[in-house]
Every structure is written in C-alpha cells, then in structure tokens.
Structures
1.
Amino acid sequence: MIEALRSDEIVHKLGGRFKLCALIQRRMKELVVDGARPLIERDGRTDLELVIEEILQDKIAPTWEPEETVEDGLDESVL
C-alpha cells in the first residue's frame, strides 16, 4: 500500500477523504485516458503512486466548482 495513504496528512490537506478520492480519480483520468503528462518524474512509480506524489508536492490541487444552491437551480415556472 502507498505509505502516504496510511496517514491522515493527505486527507486533511484536501479537506476529506471524498475530496481526495475525487481528485485522484480526476487526475488518473487525465493521465490514463486523456494522455496528460506527469508533473513529476515517474521513476518507476505506478499511476496511483504518481498522482499521490503530485498531490503531496502541491503540483495538483482541487479546483471545485461552487455548488449550485437550490434557489439557483429551480425553474420559476415550476413554482
């Protein structure tokens, strides 16, 4: 198992396990599906290890879109 995932440092850095998981998934898709280049040297690391190290080195960070409020999402014709 990846050592960084054993401690809560990375979880607290991103604000929770869900956000960590979402960021990992997004970056893995960029690397594997979209063909993005790694931001650090691969040095024999797996894709998951690479993503975790990119997070730890602050090479990637979450860019969450603001949540749409209930009021913003309602169609007034429904009311």
2.
Amino acid sequence: MLSRDKIRGCFLLGACGDTLGAPLEGIKDLETIIAAHGDKGLSDIIEFKNAYGSGKDFPPGRITDDTTMTMTTVSAMLLAKDINDWQELRGLLWQGYLNWGQHQEDGAPLAAKIDVTIEWPEGSDKFWFYCGAGRGTIAALMQDEPGTVSVPLNYNCIIRGKETKGPNPGCGGMMRVAPLALLDLPPEKIFELGCDSAALTHGHPEAFVATGAIALLIHYAARDEDMASAVKKTVAVLEQYGDRPDYAAGVDACLKALALARQKASAQPCDLHVMDALPGQLGYPNPFLAVPVLAHTAYALLSAPEKPDAAGIKSAMALAISHSGDSDSVGAIVGNVLGARYGAGVIPQEWLAVLVQRADVEKMADALSVIIAPAKEPAMRRNPDLGL
C-alpha cells in the first residue's frame, strides 16, 4: 500500500541519486572514474566542479534538472482539479515546464509563453532555477504546443549553438515521471500515462516507451514488487503494445534493452565495466539517449541487494552513477525506484544531511501524499526540519 514514507523515499533518494551522479556526468571514460573513486564507484555526495561547463562550482547536495523537473511534475499534479483528467494535467505540466525552462540557458524566450494567471502551489518556484537543461527539452518547449504520442514534436533549431532536432530520443521524460507513476491506476494506464507525459517534449517512440517502462518500474516498486518481478511485469506490459503502430519501434528497442540488462545482471551483477558497456552492446554510441538509460537503470536495479540497509543503498547507487553515460539521470531514476520500494528509512543519513533542498522535497512529497495516499498509515514521526 502506498504511503507517505514511500513517496518521500521515492523523491528523496531520487534527489540524492541526482546530486550523487552530477559530478560524473560528462566524464566519458570509466577508467577516469575508477582512478578517482575506486573500483566500486563514487558513493559520496561531493561538489560539482565546473557545472555544465559554466565555470561555476556547485556545492555537495545541489540538485539538477532531474529533481527540479520531477518537483515541477508534482506541482502540476497538486494544481489539477482532477488529477485523473489528462487534458487538464497535460496543460499544467506544459506550463510548469515552461516556468522551469525560462530559467535555463537559452530559455528566456519561453517567458512569453507562460500563463501568468496560474497560481502555482507554494514552494513550486523553489525548483525553478538554472540547473543544466537538455537542449532537446528547451527546443521542444519553444514549440507552439506540446506533442503527443501520435503527433510528436518535429523541429530543427539551434540551442546553445548546436543544431537540435526532434522528435527527441533522449531521457528527459524518464527523469520527471516518478510522481505520475505513483498514482493508483492499472499498470497499462500507468504505462500510457508515462508515454503521454514524455511525448509532451520527447516524441521519439524510444523516448516515450522508455518513459512508460520507468513509470511501471516505479509503480511496481511502490507496491512492494522485488526488482526481478518489477522488470518481468514491465516486460509483460510492453509486449501488449508491440503491435500498435505508434509504440512498436519503441517497444522493440526497450525490450531488447531490458533483455540485455536481465542477462548481464544474472551473469555478472554489480560490475562497473558491464554497466558501462551496455549502450555500445545495444548499438548506441550516445549513452545519454532513452534506451541506454533504461538499460543502465534495469541493470543497476537487478544488481541491487534485496532488502538493503544504508550501505546496500550506497553500493547500488554507486553502480547506478559510475559510468560514462548520463550519471545523474540514471542515479535519480534508480533512486526513485529504490526509494519507492523501501521508503525513506534506507537513505544514508550522511546523504540527507547534505541534500541542499531536502526540506523542500519533503514538503512536496507530503503535499502529494495528501492527494494520492490519504490516511493510509499512522501519523509519521515528527520532523524537526519541517517544523512538524
């Protein structure tokens, strides 16, 4: 049964994974990571040097686009009159992402597209700051209206000096989907909701199907499925969509990624070199795309210890972020899944102690729990950090 603790765990461990992985994003050689942090990978939250090539150094625990977009998803859900009305929710999500996007590099023109009459929930704007947005997300938000699964956004523009084309095959939908995955809906609806939410900006079939798969993993984990069962059930749902034209190509690519992750985790679990090699084995030279991120996520989850303590979580998360791909996004997503499975109690206290916006994330989690998990558990212990 979904609880406030699971919602907190999902968002807090996701935030920890985000900030844990941020210093490694962009390091293209695994051996460089091992030389600096050991053969088990990075397991301490450290400062983020020269963030996004900006020349700025971010302190330990400073969250990035993965968590800020996730919290923006929460804001839209809190604002919706009917959380199950997709047409209302998609408009609020688009407006929320525009508010977030205007603060990113090359995002200033988005301000003209914002509906200033919307009164966002208290605390929403605390997550709207410069934090390293993907070029594809900003390019998508520049379009006149959000995309859909059947009518994806198609564009060709220059963002941060580089040609950026759509439909977008990246992982930007995956990293922000966790709040939607927690809803009390049938698995097929969770999958479709994940796909629809990604297609607002990431209309490539591989991108939105991978997002639907991540939504399922989080959904099953929050309902106490172990990781092997969660992956197996996710595969079963994806197979139902394999003959649907809008989904077929994405389903095929994602099933191959999950199959490879299952095979490697069974034969060689918890191996940084195996983790790092997954994108290339799937035929993707760019490990930041949605399908490689799905493979990385599934391998890390299937390698994680069952019923971990804080040390087990640190080990699992170190594997999730210690590779030459999208370290902070994979860390955030793996954190979302494991946090939803085990709750906030497994998160290492030393990570929570340095998480810069811990209280802000907890407040958003608790606000969402009132809507999607009301009165399903005894009152939580007092949290002095929140004045509770």
3.
Amino acid sequence: MPKLNNTLPIITNPDSKHLDTLATQLHHIPDSVLMEQAASQIYAQLCRDYDLQNERIAILAGSGNNGGDALALVRYFPKNVDYDIYFAESGRYSLLNQMQQDILTSLGITFRPLSSFCDNAASYTMVIDALYGIGYSAGREPDTQLCRIAETLRENAAAVVAIDIPSGLVECNNADDGASRCICADRTYSIGFHKALFYDISARPCCGTIVNLPISFSIDYIDDDLKQRRTYLVSRDTAAQNHRPISQFVHKYTKGAVCVIGGSRGRIGAAIHCGRAALSGGAGIVSALTNDDCLDSLNIAAPELVCDAIDNIESYLTKYQSFVIGPGVSLTSDKAAQLCQHFCRMKHTVLDASFFTHYRPDVLKKFAAPPVLTPHVGECMTFFGLDKAQLCHNTIETVRRLAAEHGVYLLLKSATQYLGTPDGIVYVIDRPNAAAAQAGSGDLLAGLIAAQLCHAENIAEAVMSAVNVFYDGIDGFLKELIKKI
C-alpha cells in the first residue's frame, strides 16, 4: 500500500500567526527577512505561472503585513513590467508595511489611492490581491470597499492572484452570501503552509489554484494543540507510491472478492457501475446482491458480475473480503433490519448512497471493523442531522469530529474530498474536476475503494489510493476525449 510520506500539513490562521512569532522569537529570524523571503518566493512563482512582461498589473496593497509583502514584491519586478500600486488609505500601518513604503518612496515609486481602482480596473490584465491577510476579522457589516472591489473583479477578465489568502475569505463562513464579500482568486499563493480556511467547502471556490510557498517556518515547535488537530493535504502522487506488489500466483477469491449490495427497479445501474469499478480496481470476483425483482435485469445487463438475491447474503460473508452497501438499493424496513444482523461479520465495508436513507448513525457501532462512509454533502447532512453551516463553513473540523465520535472513516465527497479517521486525522484530497460531478461517479468510487480494501493493511491509505485512481481515470478519459474532438 502507499506510504503517506508526501503529505503537507494544513494549519489554522492562529497557527500561522504563532509560527510567525516563533520564527522571530525562537529562531531569531527578523520579520523583515521573512517578508523578503515571501516577496522573493511570490515573484518566482509569478514568473512560473505568467509572462509578466505581457501583463498590465494592478497591485492592491493593504495597510498590514500582507500589503507589505506586495510592496516588497515590486522591487523584484524588472523595469519592463507594467504595474500600478493601489494603496489603502489608512492612519495605521504595520511597521513592516511602513518600512516598505519608505523604501519604495525613496526609489521614486508612487502609489495610487485604492478608492480609484474600480474606475480603472478594466485596463488591467492581472490583479495582485494583498489587501487583507490572515489577521482580517469581519465585522457585523461587510466591508463596503472590499465588496465593491470584489464585484468589479468578478465582472472583469483580469487574472487575480491572492497573496497568502484571498482578501475577506473569512466572510465565506460568516454569511450565506459570504462569497460576494471576498475577492475570488484564480490563484492563491499561500505563505508558509496551507491554511485550513482554504478548504472549507464554502471558501474553496474562491481560492482557485492553491500554491504553497514555504519560507523559514518550523512547524516542529508549534503547540501540542496542533497535534490534536492533525490535518494533511495529500499531494497528487502520494497515493501512487509504493503499491503492494501484485502476486501472479492467485485465484479470483484471493485476488480480491467484493460483494455489492445495491440496485433496485429503475436503479440497477448504480450496482453495475460499482461492481465494474471494483473489477477494474483489481478485484478478482464481484457479486451484486439485489432484490428478487431486479435479478434478471441485472444478470442480463452485467454478465461479468455474479448476481444473487440479498436474502442469500449468508453465503458471501466468509469468502468475500469487502462489501459495499447502498448503491441504488431499496430495502423494506424488515429487510434493512435483517441485513443489519450481518454487519458484524463483514471484514471491510463501504457505506454509500441509499445506505444513508435506510439507516441511522447508531447502526455504525454494529460493524466489527470501522466502516468507510462515502456520503456527498447532502447525504452527510441528512444522515448525521447537520445543517449546511456546520458542514460547509467548518468542513475539516466537522469531518474530524464525526469520524472520531462514531469511530469510522468518513470520506466526504465534494469538489474536494475530505477523509476523517477514527483517531482524529483529516486528509484533504484537493483535485477539483468538473467531470466528476456526474451521476454514477460516486458508485464508481465506492467500487474502487472496496477493491483496495480487499488487502488493506491501512484503511486510510487504501481509500486515498482509490480516490487517486478515480481522478487519474477521469483525467485519462478527458485527455482521450480531447484528442478525438
């Protein structure tokens, strides 16, 4: 199985402030040096992502250290880069910000008032957002100027690059219309470490492509509190490494046996998708158990699957290593209760789709081993009795709490995937792809997870491996499709 040695820590805004303080107090790194490192890293990344000489750039600089980073950045621009600095009018500037102002003033560089930006916004091809950093705290009323700038940028075609964090991003978690109160970036250059706020479901679309720019922070000295909130970003290739060697001396049952309990009249496709994905994911045999009235249709539509009635599940409990319960399944209350009696005998289970309408959370304690739950946002809210704000505005901590409280592996499916483990770790798999937003894709993922679980030594690694196989398959399909167009 893959080894998780390429994961990156995700920290909160207070963690980030604390690390900044430790860098200065413990490691004796002047904060002006940290700002210079940030500016250097930002410039290098801009050069990788854009041809700056062919851009007309507006730099929106606030009065704090975030704005100071942008002012320091200006000194790295060659003379042939076309830019204007729009500076926030304020009676209070941070010491580092004031220092950068003085440096630029001595170099003869002038500033434009931020209030004039919206009138000139259409003339720029790129906007660098450095108005507010992690210290921004939203008031009861939205920041009128920020809202106006955000609306202007949404109406223009300029590329938006946010330094450290899109300005006002915290607003996404404070109001239903929060996204309209913050700047939506095409790219976010996070300084030091990835921020947890980026990955709330409500905030993630406003961050665009997230690039982390490391500087002289050491996470080893942060408070023990961080260790209790362990959150990691899973890099794209993490779960593609060190796969278990495939033995050629196997038969279909030892290669991997998956049992899918699903399908109903009008919804046998869900069970078929799941079963075929399990076979593609490495299983040697897949059985699909469904209601009696669907058996003939299922058998004709998917002859590669062993088709049987749900009532015969007893025959599969010994030979099969993993079970998927839910894709398109329809159960009477009596049949749901009968099936529940067998949960304690299932080695590995993936709970998906209609499982969340037939059962309640208290049933989770009946499984012998921690099951893997794969709900999308709506299913998660219904099953656990959550409101939208709990899940979308505080995603990581909600997933962590639910997984630990119920002793399960909870894979929350959204544009970003969140895997919470029983011991309180949350892994974030951030590979947004519109092609995955299609009916049936969840059934495919459930089947892939079940195939990986057949020989899993570590459930979290197996789930992440399946998620990466899922996204790699989508990427491969899109590449082949483009060739044909």
